[in-house]
Recover the amino acids of this structure.
């Protein structure tokens, strides 16, 4: 765990979040990369996030078209596309039957005189449509998805001969029309291939003895294999899997139309696994958990290995973890692991203990979908310090704190009972014993163990105030004891030695101890500057300077001098740097 100890806790958390927690949901592979690249290279397309959101809202809120009206509208659009625009019948029929949003918008513009069909025919005779809209919708795009992709200066499909030709090639090859939109999103370059190039690419793959049904699946899932020469990384992955007994039918079974695949990354995962496992172990692992390879092209797996190496976990222990991998999606496992890591950080667990738990209980942490930290602290009825100790002694208990299970509060420990006794004594000494309701409220207001509260109280008395005055201060502002003894002492030191106020100022303004030192220093520095420039009264009360909101302080004091706002920002920046 040497590497882990060398990192400060905030650095570890930042690293884990940026490199892992976000990326495992959005792998930095070319799942959508080719699409974004083509957008930059092809100025015909434009993107408008606002318009896409508006379209989505419109579609979701739009009423359904009556069935009879829909059929007439479809028939009119089919006639127009096939007979007027000379689009092949099968393509025209697909467009007319699978573009309800386009038809709904079209019907809004048509003045229905006798019947829908003839009225639409008359409308289309004089007002040509943007044929890419029903075309894209019929390819499986949602309206809000295709809106940003519409060609800027084109209306007719015949204006983009390459798009239409390559679309027809894919249809003839056996790709379902409503899945072609996915190919377009993942690899628009396929539709920009020169005339005759796409059939040759398909033929080249078939000559490698890859079945027709297998290639149909691959093209929908991973159309990037059609860009450039034959994807040798894809072929290499198939060869390796075949050598382990996994044929193409097995690969086809475990690919999803909804995903894209980076065969280079899958190949790297296979290469890492081949170094970590013997032949039989690797075959068994992939057979039981194909998602290690195919979920996000193995990116979550790749990142998980890197994450554990960062914690100093040896390769043989990482291998053992994979052999015990639970029946859970890899990305969910990764997400659970990171959430446990963040949970440990939020309850202020020591860095070395976090490393020990992550390394020793990786499978457990990856299997637990923990509830949020605040929820656990509340339902377990426990403080952070005790919770850290409890987890360190009983790590398996984490499995009982997952989403969907009822949380049982932790039993009172001997220390907790003693703490409650001391807290009760402290509150009785303050005079809360006469009213049970006041006592219950006080228990919630005063945070900390009984001994700690007394220690904080005594630190104020020992600074030089009368015990009765401090009791009154705590009654008025109980929150002043909800901070450590050290923090209280440092604030008193600032008040007396840095700002030059008498200690007795706390009696009339006890909540001074509740404000941050940065706020107090900023307000006092600004007040002194204003006082020097004759823009503030020289004897303002400390509470007047510190307690009001920033908005009021700026309006009533800072803005009274032309340079006030600039000085305020300069002081704020300086104090932030000194912090």
């Amino acid at each position: 765990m040497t590497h882990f100890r060398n990192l400060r806790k905030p650095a570890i958390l930042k690293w884990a979040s940026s490199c892992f927690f976000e990326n495992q949901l959005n792998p930095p592979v070319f799942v959508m990369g080719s699409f974004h690249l083509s957008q930059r290279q092809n100025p015909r397309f434009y993107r408008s996030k606002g318009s896409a959101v508006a379209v989505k809202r419109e579609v979701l809120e739009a009423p359904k078209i009556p069935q009879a009206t829909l059929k007439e509208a479809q028939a009119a659009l089919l006639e127009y596309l096939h007979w007027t625009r000379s689009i092949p019948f099968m393509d025209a029929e697909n467009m007319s039957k699978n573009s309800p949003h386009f038809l709904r918008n079209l019907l809004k513009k048509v003045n229905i005189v006798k019947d829908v069909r003839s009225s639409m025919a008359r409308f289309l005779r004089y007002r040509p449509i943007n044929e890419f809209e029903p075309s894209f919708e019929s390819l499986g795009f949602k309206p809000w998805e295709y809106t940003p992709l519409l060609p800027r200066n084109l209306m007719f499909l015949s204006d983009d001969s390459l798009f239409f030709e390559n679309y027809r090639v894919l249809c003839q090859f056996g790709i379902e029309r409503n899945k072609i939109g996915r190919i377009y999103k993942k690899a628009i370059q396929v539709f920009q291939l020169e005339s005759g190039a796409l059939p040759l690419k398909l033929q080249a793959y078939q000559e490698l003895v890859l079945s027709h049904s297998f290639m149909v699946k691959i093209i929908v899932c991973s159309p990037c294999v059609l860009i450039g020469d034959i994807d040798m990384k894809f072929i290499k992955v198939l060869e390796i899997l075949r050598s382990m007994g996994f044929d193409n039918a097995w690969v086809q079974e475990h690919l999803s139309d909804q995903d894209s695949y980076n065969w280079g990354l899958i190949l790297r995962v296979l290469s890492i696994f081949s170094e970590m496992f013997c032949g039989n172990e690797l075959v068994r692992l992939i057979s039981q958990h194909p998602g290690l390879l195919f979920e996000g092209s193995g990116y979550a797996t790749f990142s998980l290995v890197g994450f554990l190496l960062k914690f100093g976990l040896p390769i043989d222990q990482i291998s053992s973890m994979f052999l015990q991998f639970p029946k859970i999606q890899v990305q969910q496992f990764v997400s659970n692991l990171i959430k446990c890591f963040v949970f440990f950080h939020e309850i202020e667990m020591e860095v070395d203990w976090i490393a020990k738990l992550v390394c020793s209980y990786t499978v457990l942490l990856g299997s637990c979908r923990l509830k949020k930290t605040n929820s656990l602290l509340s339902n377990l009825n426990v403080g952070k310090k005790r919770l850290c100790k409890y987890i360190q002694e009983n790590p398996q208990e984490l499995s009982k704190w997952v989403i969907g299970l009822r949380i049982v509060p932790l039993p009172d420990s001997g220390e907790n009972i003693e703490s409650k006794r001391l807290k009760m004594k402290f509150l009785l000494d303050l005079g809360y014993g006469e009213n049970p309701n006041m006592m219950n409220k006080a228990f919630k207001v005063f945070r900390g163990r009984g001994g700690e509260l007394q220690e904080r109280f005594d630190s104020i008395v020992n600074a030089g105030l009368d015990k009765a005055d401090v009791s009154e201060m705590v009654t008025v502002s109980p929150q002043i004891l909800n901070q450590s003894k050290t923090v209280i002492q440092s604030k008193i030191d600032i008040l007396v030695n840095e700002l030059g106020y008498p200690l007795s100022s706390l009696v009339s303004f006890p909540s001074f101890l509740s404000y941050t030192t940065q706020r107090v220093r900023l307000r006092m520095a600004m007040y002194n500057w204003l006082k020097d420039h004759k823009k503030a009264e020289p004897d303002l009360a400390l509470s007047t300077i510190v307690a009001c909101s920033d908005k009021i302080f700026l309006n009533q004091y800072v803005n009274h001098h032309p340079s006030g706002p600039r000085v305020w920002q300069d002081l704020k920046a300086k104090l932030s740097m000194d912090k």
About this structure: Confidence is low (pLDDT under 50) at residues 4-13, 17-49. The two ends are 31 Å apart (CA to CA).
